[in-house]
Write a structure and sequence with these properties.
The chain is of the alpha+beta class. The protein has 2 domains: 3-47 and 102-158, Alpha-Beta Plaits; 55-94, no CATH class. It is built from 6 helices and 5 strands; from the N terminus they run βαββαααβαβα. Strands 3-2-4-1-5 form a 5-stranded antiparallel β-sheet, sandwiched between helices. It starts with a strand and ends in a 6-residue tail after the last helix.
Length: 164
């Protein structure tokens, strides 16, 4: 079972820094991420999602390949590639993998302009090591699907440390 976490940061750069850190933890097999999306809100109230995987581009590339292959069989490789790319892009645009985009946009409405939210879909996690790596990075936990004790541990780990 996966867990969903939504954390806000004062800037998109800070959210990207934390996402990069989490992705590096994934390379060390300390966490398994299903999706990691950064949401921002502009001055006009529009929410933009910065996805890890752009399904439109992936669909266009895949469609172009298959279109070129099939087009070559019928002696129309350029037309086949163009048609394949267009249909792949449309298919990719309509595909939503990972966290539901509408739910993220709805939750990100709470952001103030300039702030950023990081949505994480966590499949598995070595909790103590991940929390130690995130110690003091900042951010405010808005919501999680963790049990209460684990959510409190995350909040405590993210809290910036003040030197006394």
């Amino acid at each position: 079972m996966s867990d969903l976490v939504f954390i806000t940061f004062p800037s998109e750069e800070k959210a990207e820094e934390v996402r990069s850190k989490i992705l590096s933890l994934q390379q060390d097999y300390l966490i398994e991420i299903g999706d990691a999306v950064i949401a921002t809100k502009d001055d006009k109230g529009r929410v933009k999602l910065n996805q890890l995987l752009n399904t439109t581009v992936a669909g266009a590339a895949s469609g172009a390949f298959w279109g070129l292959l099939i087009g070559t069989l019928f002696l129309l490789p350029i037309a086949g590639a163009a048609i394949g790319a267009a249909s792949g892009a449309v298919g990719g645009k309509l595909t939503d993998i990972g966290i539901n985009d509408d739910k993220m946009k709805e939750a990100a409405q709470a952001l103030r302009p300039g702030e950023a939210g990081l949505f994480l879909l966590i499949r598995k996690m070595t909790t103590d090591k991940v929390l130690a790596a995130l110690q003091g990075v900042g951010g405010t936990v808005v919501s999680t699907s963790f049990e209460h004790a684990k959510e409190e541990e995350l909040k405590a780990a993210l809290a910036p440390h003040v030197e006394g």
